[in-house]
Every structure is written in C-alpha cells, then in structure tokens.
Amino acid sequence: MAKKYVSTKEYKELGPVAYRQWRAESHCKYLHGYALSFKFEFEADTLDARNWVVDYGSLGPLKDMLKEWFDHRLLVSEDDPMMHHFKFLESIKLAQLHILKKTGCEGIAEALYEYVNEVFLKEHGYADRVWCKRVEVREKEENMAYVTGEREDKQVLAQFDRVKE
Asked: Which of 13, 56, 59, 103 has a Cα at 20 to 30 A from 24?
C-alpha cells in the first residue's frame, strides 16, 4: 500500500446556529442551537513544493464559507413540513435561513464533504493532488458525527457519470 500524507484543519465553535430534526420524536424536534465545530482531514499521495498537503493559510475562504453558512443561521432541512413558516421568518428579517438536504451533524458533514471535494478544492487549485477524506461536525464535546470516503470512490462515480452521458 502506498503511503498517504494527511493534514487536518479545525475550526472551533463557529456560530451560533439553530436547527431541528423534524422527524425526531424526542426534544430534538424543537429548534435548538449550538456553536458548531468542524474538522477537515485532507489527504495526498504527494506533498507540494513546500512539503505540505495544503497551505493552512489558503483555507481562509473555507472558514469564511463556514461563517456564511453557519454563523447566526437557522438551518432547515429542505423537506421540513414547516418550511413556509421558516421562509416567513426570513422574509420579516427574524431569521437567516440556510437550507440543507439534511440537518444534524451527519447531514451537515455530508454537505461539507461534498462541497469541499466538488467545489472548494477545485476552485483553490488542489483538486489534482488533494482529497478531503473526512469531515467532522461537532455540536458539543459529547456529540459528533463525520463523513469519510476514499478518493477512489469519487473517481469511480465520476467515470460512471461520464459513461451515462
């Protein structure tokens, strides 16, 4: 097995953010909030000219995006049956919505995993060499979820998509 280089970047307690799990039967069905923390694990087969996986300084736009999506935002699942109420709150300037496929740590981690690998790394010149292998989202010290994958998984899917076209 070939060696891999791994580098991590962590952003602690950005927010606050509020959301709910509308399908939950517990108190999680109500709006509640956290100052979310995020951890990204970048992987590469080779290092750059400076012997780095990623330049930590180049990740500033990632932090800016996290603030835009999760600082003083109300996260709403796209299939929430109360969506019209949340949109009303936004229309009267009582909330700033960010609509996701899924809310909760798992859904947020999945959305970030896709964004970083499909958009961010490409836009910042890393896509040919670097892969974001893992995205971790933490509500608080006790509650965390992550999404992980292999670069090869994405390459196989991309090839399959090209065949279908």
From this structure: 13
What is the value of pTM for the model shown?
A: 0.87
In single-letter form, the type of residue at position 107 comes to G
Residue 35: closest CA among 113, 112, 141: 141
The CA distance from 125 to 161, in Å, is 23
Specify the 3-state DSSP secondary structure of 4.
coil
Query: Which residues lie below 8 Å from residue 53, measured CB to CB, with a gap of 6+?
Result: 5, 6, 7, 42, 43, 44, 47, 130
Mean pLDDT of 126-154: 89
Which fold is adopted by the domain 5-164? Tetrahydropterin Synthase; Chain A (3.30.479)
Taking the C-alpha atoms of residue 12 and residue 29, their distance in angstroms, rounded to an integer, is 25
Cβ neighbourhood burial of 124 (10 Å; 0-12, 13-18, 19+): middle
Side-chain-side CA neighbours of 6 within 13 Å: the count stands at: 11
